[in-house]
Specification:
Strand order of the largest sheet: 2-10-9-8-7-3-6
Structural class: alpha/beta
Order of helices and strands: HEHHEHEHEEEEHEEHEEEHHHEEHEEEH
Helix content: 25-40%
Strand content: 15-25%
Largest sheet: 7 strands, mixed
Number of strands: 17
Bound molecules: pyridoxal-5'-phosphate
Distance between the termini: 65 Å
Length: 414
């Protein structure tokens, strides 16, 4: 009989969202007149900006005309979009990049989970805890992890990020080869400033390792000392691959467009001791395994960089940031310990009185009808924390915080 990839059997069942859905259903059945407010969502809710819609419509019409029709596009992406990315996201920040150092793709999730194909399985990886689960699961599927014990896999170096260290990742004691960094962070909302990120870049240079830098939430940065790109740090081109996405920036979660940057300076070694450019390997990877992002989508992404497009996107981001402020201020007024929400759409709440994440989930749902995400769903270090998202509507956000404050204030009076 044909054999399977046994590594898939090492994956833990992801009960997080299924369990949340089940609990939501049960609550609705028991309390049909109580409304539920979901502040757990990691998806945008505002529609894509008008400029993007207009541009995609025009591109669709072009595809229906023989003189403009386009078939397979370049796997690496159309030059018109790459040019806009280089100008707006890099040149304007004094970062020089060449066109062939950018690869357009259909989502950071795909890029992050596939990039490991170009690295040897012998590499030791290091991951922050709590973490966006794709980093770990893609390595499990690829056979880089050992046994699973008490919420952790052998052969992964976990970097605990807890309130005691301000959720800042600390350089691991053990030698590692590949480091995943996510800043601004999902789920903690922490963002590394230039000084903090420089420590990682210097470490990677000194120790010959690679940083996989996930900047999916870069558009939410408010503070001026937080870098929007790892290449703002000197030397980073020699050690870092950067992942950026239009998903949260421009509401593209349903349209799908992202990009990855692999500078030519970034090199690793073959078993024969030869230095090889990772850019070359990824280009080869994409040419074989990827057909490129649709022309219509890339025209939509291009519109993100127009004057009007930028204005519309800015308005949407401000809307979510205002929601984040409402959540943060509301919880702080209750005396709660709250993190994130300044450079990130996520608020990371330290649950009071040592209550566990799932118990807090139940308490909040049953007493306020508000849903969030139990922190333990992002890793063992997330236990005791709770993620709330600013991606809901303003009305829902205001109402949710009103209910939470009413409940916790009344609890104190008892
Ligand atoms: N990176 C992080 C930290 C995320 O939270 C997400 C999505 O939620 C992604 C990457 C993936 O984004 P995309 O929609 O581009 O696949």
């Amino acid at each position: 009989m044909t054999k399977i990839n046994e590594n898939f059997l090492k994956l833990q069942d992801n009960y997080l969202f299924a369990t949340i859905k089940k609990k939501e259903r049960e609550f609705k059945e028991k309390n049909p007149s109580n409304s539920i407010i979901n502040l757990g969502i990691g998806d945008v809710t505002l529609p894509i900006p008008g400029e993007v819609v207009f541009s995609m419509k025009r591109a669709s019409e072009e595809m229906g005309k023989v003189e403009y029709f386009r078939g397979y596009g370049p796997e690496q992406g159309y030059e018109f979009l790459i040019d806009k990315i280089i100008k707006n996201d890099y040149s304007d920040r004094n970062i020089d990049l060449r066109k062939d150092e950018i690869f357009i793709s259909d989502g950071s999730k795909c890029d992050i989970s596939q990039i490991i194909n170009i690295f040897s399985r012998d590499n030791k990886i290091s991951i922050m805890d709590p973490v966006y689960p794709v980093y770990i699961d893609s390595n499990i599927m690829d056979g880089r992890t050992g046994k699973y014990l008490e919420g952790k896999y052998d052969n992964i170096v976990y970097i605990p990020c807890v309130s005691d260290n301000g959720f800042m990742p600390k350089i691991p004691q053990e030698k590692v080869d590949i480091i995943y960094l996510c800043s601004p962070n999902n789920p903690t909302g922490m963002a590394l400033n230039k000084k903090e990120l420089k420590i990682w870049v210097d470490y990677a240079i000194e120790n010959n390792c690679i940083i996989l830098f996930d900047a999916a939430y870069e558009a939410f940065i408010s503070q001026s000392d937080i870098p929007h790109s790892i290449y703002e740090i000197e030397g980073a081109k020699k050690v870092a691959i950067e992942f950026k996405s239009f998903s949260k920036t421009a509401g593209f979660t349903g349209i799908r467009c992202s990009y990855i940057v692999i500078p030519h300076e970034l090199k690793c070694i073959s078993s024969l001791g030869k230095e090889i450019e990772l850019n070359y390997l990824w280009k080869r990877h994409q040419a074989t395994k990827f057909n490129g992002v649709s022309y219509i989508t890339q025209r939509g992404a291009e519109a993100v960089y127009t004057k009007l497009g930028k204005k519309q996107i800015d308005r949407n981001i401000k809307y979510y940031k205002n929601n984040a402020k409402i959540i943060k201020n509301g919880l702080e007024k209750l005396g709660m310990e709250v993190y994130g929400g300044i450079n990130s759409p996520y608020i990371w709440l330290k649950i009071p009185n040592g209550v566990k994440s799932w118990d807090f989930f139940d308490e909040l749902l049953n007493n306020t009808g508000v849903i969030g995400i139990p922190g333990v769903g992002f890793g063992t270090c997330g236990e005791g924390y709770f993620r709330l998202s600013s991606f809901g509507t303003k009305e829902d956000t205001v109402e949710a915080i009103k209910r939470i404050r009413k409940y916790f204030n009344s609890k104190r009076e008892i």
